[in-house]
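Repro:
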Amino acid sequence: MPKVKIISLLIATLVATPAQAIDVAKVREIISDPKGLAAPGCAAGAFRGGKTLFVTAAGSGDIEKGKPLDGDTLFYAASVSKQFTALAAAKLIEQKKLSLDDDVRKYLPELPEYEVPVTVRMLMLHTAGIRDSLELIRLAGIDSVADTDKATALKLLFAQKSTNFTPGTAYTYSNGGYLLLAEIVERVSGMPFADYAKKAILRPLGMKRSFFMNDAKPSGTNIAHGYVPVGDGFEIRDTYPTFSGSGGLMVTINDLASLDRDIEVGHKVWTPAVAKIMTTPGTFTNGQPALEERTGLVYGGGLMIGSRNGQYFVQHGGGAEAFKNMYARLPERKLSVAVLCNRGDWVSQDKADAIVEAIEGDILTADDASSAAKPALDGRYVSDELQATWDVRIAGDVLTAGVASRFARAPGEPLELKRSADGTFTALGTRLIFDEDGQGFTIRTARVHALRFRRAG
C-alpha cells in the first residue's frame, strides 16, 4: 500500500473511543473530492469536552507535489482570525491595560473625530460604522489585497472622514474595524501585533505551528495553497492579505484542538473574565441586540452567537478567494467542529453542519420549520427605488441576474455573483443577502447600504 494512503488511513481512524461510534469514513466523504490528491480539500476535527474525537483530512495542500492535507497543515484562516484578535484585546482588558469603553482615538489619534466617539467595544462588535478596509483597498485601485500592506490599509482608514452610520446604532461587518482593533493591541502592548498574539495567546494555548503574518508571506513546510476550479482542474489562488487583525492567522486543525481544550477545561488563556468578553452577545447603544439580520445571530468578541437550525451555536467562518473555513461550537452539547478548506468553491458552514450531523444525528433539522422548507430563490425581483427588475437564477454556488430598468434602453449584461462562506452572494464589492423567507433581498456595497428588492407577484 502506498505510504500516502497509509498515512491518510491512520489519520482517519483517530477516534477518541470506539464507544462513540463516530463514522469518520462518513466525515471524510463530506470533505473529499473524487479526484483525490489531484484536488484540494479540507482538514477537519471534532472535539468534545476538551478531548479530540477525531482529526482527519482529504485532498492536497499542494496538487503539483501531491502533498496531502493533514492535521498539521497550515491554512489561511481568513476571518476565523477575528476571534483571536478579539482574544488579544480581551487579555489586555483583563489586565486593565485597555477598556471596552475607551474612545479609540486615545490610541489612534490619526482617526478623525466622528459625530459620536467610536469605542473599543464598537470595533469588536462591528457596530462602529468603520468602513471595510479590504473594500477600500479595491476601490483605491489595488487589484489584489495580496499586493498591499498594513500601512496602506491603515492610511486608507485614517483618511475616512465619516462612518457608514452613527457609531453604535447599527451593525455592518467591517474588516477595517478589526484592523484598527489589532493596531490598538499593538500600541497598548508595545510590540507588533503578531508578536503579542504569539506571546499572550498562541504559545500559552499550545498552538505550536500557528502564527499571525506581519506583512510577509508564510514560509516553511506543510502550508496549503488555496485553489479555485478552472476548467477540469484547479489553479492556485494565494490571494490573501499578509497583514493581520481582520485576518492574517495561519492555523492548523491540531492547533484549534488546543484552543478548544482551553475553552472547555484549561482556562489558561480563556479565563472566566475573558470568556465573558468573548461570548456576551453585543448590543447597540439603544440596548437592542447587535443582530446580523441574515443569520439571526448576534456578534460578540469575534464570534457569532445564537440559535440557528434548532441549536445554539458560538461560531465564526472565514473566507478568502480560495480558502473557506468554519470553527463552530455547540456549548450545550460540549461539541466543537472545525473545518479548514483550501478550495474556494465549497461552503464551509455546510461542511461543518454535515459533520455535526454525522456525529449527533439529524439535530439541525429537527423541529426547525425554516430548515425543513427552505424557500426557492429563483424568480423575478423588483426594486421600486431603482425602478428595475432582476430575474434571478441560482445554479450551484453561482447566482445570475438578468437586469432590466426603465432607465436603460436595452437589457444589460447579466450580473454574476458567487456564494460566499456566509451564504450571501458577492461580486466586485457587491453583496446580495436574501431574506429568510425568500420574499426579497438586500443589496449592499461600500457606498450603497440596504437597497431593497421584493419578489414580484
